[in-house]
C-alpha cells in the first residue's frame, strides 16, 4: 500500500510540474513574440551550461546509486543499503550545493527572481525542484535512521527504501526534462 500511495502522490506532483512547464512555455512564447526573443536570449546567455551538465550528471548518477540501494534492500542487505543511500544522499547534497552556487552566480550577474519574467520562471521552476530534492534528502535520512534504530532489518524498512527510490527517480526525471527545457532549448 505504501508503494501505491507514493505512486498516486507522484501523479499529483507530476501535475504540479506540468503546470510549471506550461507556464514556462506559455510565457516564453508570449514574451518571445513581444520582444523578438531578446528576453530569453539574455536570460539563457547567463546560464553556465557546462556546470549544469556536471551538476545534472551528479543527480542522474545518484539515481543509479539509489537503485543499487534498492537492490540491496530487496536482498535484505542493510549494510549495502546504507552505503548506497549514504552515497545517494551525498550526491543529492552536492547537487543542491551546485544549485545554490549557480543561484549566487546568476544573482551576481543580475538575474534575480524580480529582474524579469525569465528570472521569475527560472527560479520558480528550479527552486521548486530543489525543494523536492531537499525533501528527498530528508526522506533518505529517515530511511537511514530507521535502519540504524531497528534491531533487525524488516520488510517494512525495505518497502520504505523502495518507496523513496520511486520519489528519487521521479525527481531525477523531472530534472532531466527541466534541465533540457531551460539549458538546452534556447
UniProtKB/TrEMBL annotation:
PANTHER family: CYTOCHROME BO(3) UBIQUINOL OXIDASE SUBUNIT 3 (PTHR11403:SF2), CYTOCHROME C OXIDASE SUBUNIT III (PTHR11403). It comes from the Bacteria. Residues 1-186 form the Heme-copper oxidase subunit III family profile domain. The chain crosses the membrane at residues 7-27, 47-71, 83-101, 121-145, 166-185. This is cytochrome-c oxidase. Keywords: Cell membrane, Membrane, Transmembrane, Transmembrane helix. It is an enzyme of class 7 (translocase). It is a multi-pass membrane protein. Belongs to the cytochrome c oxidase subunit 3 family. Its EC number is 7.1.1.9. It comes from Ammonicoccus fulvus. It is found in: Cell membrane. InterPro entries: Cyt_c/ubiquinol_Oxase_su3 (IPR024791), Cyt_c_oxidase-like_su3 (IPR000298), Cyt_c_oxidase_su3-like_sf (IPR035973), Cyt_c_oxidase_su3_a-hlx (IPR013833).
Amino acid at each position: 500500500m505504501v508503494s501505491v500511495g507514493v505512486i498516486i502522490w507522484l501523479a499529483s506532483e507530476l501535475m504540479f510540474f506540468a503546470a510549471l512547464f506550461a507556464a514556462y512555455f506559455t510565457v516564453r512564447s508570449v514574451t518571445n513574440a513581444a520582444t523578438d526573443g531578446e528576453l530569453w536570449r539574455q536570460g539563457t546567455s547567463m546560464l553556465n551550461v557546462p556546470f549544469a551538465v556536471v551538476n545534472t550528471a551528479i543527480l542522474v548518477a545518484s539515481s543509479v546509486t539509489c537503485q543499487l540501494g534498492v537492490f540491496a534492500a530487496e536482498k535484505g542487505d542493510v549494510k549495502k543499503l546504507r552505503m548506497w543511500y549514504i552515497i545517494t544522499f551525498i550526491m543529492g547534497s552536492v547537487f543542491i550545493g551546485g544549485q545554490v552556487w549557480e543561484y549566487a552566480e546568476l544573482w551576481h550577474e543580475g538575474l534575480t527572481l524580480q529582474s524579469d519574467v525569465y528570472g521569475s520562471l527560472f527560479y520558480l521552476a528550479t527552486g521548486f525542484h530543489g525543494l523536492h530534492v531537499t525533501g528527498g534528502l530528508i526522506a533518505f535520512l529517515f530511511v537511514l535512521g530507521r535502519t540504524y534504530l531497528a534491531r533487525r532489518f524488516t520488510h517494512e524498512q525495505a518497502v520504505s527504501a523502495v518507496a523513496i527510490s520511486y520519489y528519487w527517480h521521479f525527481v531525477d526525471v523531472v530534472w532531466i526534462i527541466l534541465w533540457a527545457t531551460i539549458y538546452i532549448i534556447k
